[in-house]
Amino acid sequence: MKKIGIIGGGISGLTLGCVLKGSGKECIIFERSNALSEHGAGISLTPNACKILDEIDILDAVRAESCSPLDIAWRDDQGKVIKKVNINEFGEVITSNRKVLINKLYEKFINLGGEIKFNHELLDIIKEKELVFKNQENISVDYIAGCDGIKSLIRTNKIKKDKITFSGYTAWRGIGSSDSKRINIYLGKNSHIVCYPVNEKLETSFIAVKKSKIKNNESWREEGSHEDLLEDFSSYGSFIKSLFQSSNKVYKWGLFDRKSLNSFSSGNITLLGDSAHPMMPFLGQGGAMALEDAFIFGNLVNKSDDFNFIRNNYEKLRVGRTNAIKRSSRYQGYINHLGNPILKSLRNFMLKNTDIAMRRTRNIYNYEPLRIINNL
Ligand SMILES: Cc1cc2nc3c(=O)[nH]c(=O)nc-3n(C[C@H](O)[C@H](O)[C@H](O)COP(=O)(O)OP(=O)(O)OC[C@H]3O[C@@H](n4cnc5c(N)ncnc54)[C@H](O)[C@@H]3O)c2cc1C
Q1: pLDDT score, position 212
Q2: Which CATH number fits the domain that encloses residue 20?
Q3: Which of 75, 79, 314, 333 is 20 to 30 Å apart from 296, CA to CA?
Q4: Residue 218: DSSP 8-state
């Protein structure tokens, strides 16, 4: 049996591990940290993401510790509703804490008999077979899945020598409290804020994004001050101010990006998730694409031992879709941040009087990976 080496124990790596172990395939995850180090921050799981969680049988467990929001409201920066949409029109949406998602994936992987080696930071790959780690261990595998995130060493060293670039956006993130069981999206000038509860206690995650010339580190852990956050979003109404003030800690970092790739594979090495297609978080699809990639890739491996079959079908199924969503995510940032009053009124008019918001996401949410795999 072929042995798959999975580099990175984030969303894509753990999901791939669950899919492979679920079919009794031999795989092992190598993670550079000494433990699962997911930081408390919100994640919205749209219908396409929920479908994958259901397929790997952790949807109920994630839902039990998360929130099922009632609806989505788009608002101006003073909180006035522009449009409200019943969430069920999209399919199931769950808003959660990233820690919950990562823990449920990890528990599932371990319960399936999976092995994860912490303190294993990959430094190099020799002859597409031998993994060289910083702790001086060398381990041979047959196939390598690069799930090592936006700063992927595998991508830079083995697929494309491109650079990470600053996107021009800075994001603030925190978890406070509110009494709203909705996803609220506030649209301001050159900025926007997305808030949603992460559990039924209505602990509320916020991500506040603004254009910026300053590069912050691409990190989950750069702590900022409430004063700076309040100053950056001073034009917003009282709900936002009290949400910010109710959060214990706030984090600030720059949003980074890489160019789109035409191919995610080389030889027996394939990229999944952010290593293949990092994207702006404005459609909440980065994690969902990581889940889809892993589900598709894992099922291709389960279907055939032939690397050419796996690689060719993975490219066919994933490159076009993920790159299109990457483009749409960036465009959504432009739409969210319109400053010109005429364009802003036009956007609000379209949002209010047409189903433009749903039309843009319907194709993203309707993805049926299992049907696609079964039809191959
Ligand atoms: C502000 C913000 C908000 C977001 N909100 C959402 C949202 O609401 N919904 C959504 O779907 N997505 C969202 N995303 C995107 C989502 O978080 C990412 O797309 C997702 O985490 C990608 O998963 P991954 O497994 O590819 O990479 P990662 O989660 O980055 O995991 C990579 C793993 O690889 C490990 N690693 C790295 N290098 C090595 C190495 N050399 N050796 C061994 N291990 C290594 C790392 O330690 C890490 O554990 C958001 C992103 C941002 C920035």
Answers
A1: 84
A2: 3.50.50.60
A3: 333
A4: S
Q: Domain of residue 326: give its range.
A: 3-164+258-374
- The conformation of residue 159, written as its DSSP 8-state character, comes to I
pLDDT tens across 180-208, in order?
999 999 999 899 999 999 999 999 999 99
Asked if residue 84 belongs to a domain, the reply is: yes
> Considering its fold, how many domains does the chain have in total?
1
Cβ contact 94:63 at 8 Å:
yes
- How many CB atoms within 10 Å of residue 368? 11
Instruction: Look up tokens 């940032």; give the residue.
Output: 333
- Which residues does a 6 A CB cutoff place in the pocket of ligand 1? 7-13, 30-33, 43-44, 49, 120-122, 147-149, 153, 171, 173, 207, 273-274, 281, 284-288, 290
The verdict on residue 311 lying in a domain is yes
Tens of pLDDT along 285-308?
999 999 999 999 999 999 998 989
Angle, helices 98-111 vs 11-22, to 10°: value is: 30
Q: 24-35 pLDDT, tens per residue? A: 999 999 999 998
Residue percentage of the chain with pLDDT more than 70: 97
344-353: average pLDDT: 94
The C-alpha atoms of residue 237 and residue 229 are separated, in whole angstroms, by 14
| Centre of ligand 1 from the C-alpha of residue 352, in Å | 33
Whole-angstrom distance, CA of residue 205 vs CA of residue 196: 5
For residue 245, being part of any structural domain is answered with no
The two beta strands, 269-271 and 265-266, are antiparallel
Q: Which atom number of ligand 1 is nearest to the Cα of residue 273? A: 26
Average pLDDT of the residues in 76-91: 89
Give me ligand 1 centre to Cα 336, in Å: 23
Distance 9 CA to ligand 1 centre (A): 9
Structure tokens at 246: 């109710």
Structural domain contains residue 171:
no
Angle between helices 286-303 and 11-22 (to 10 degrees): 30
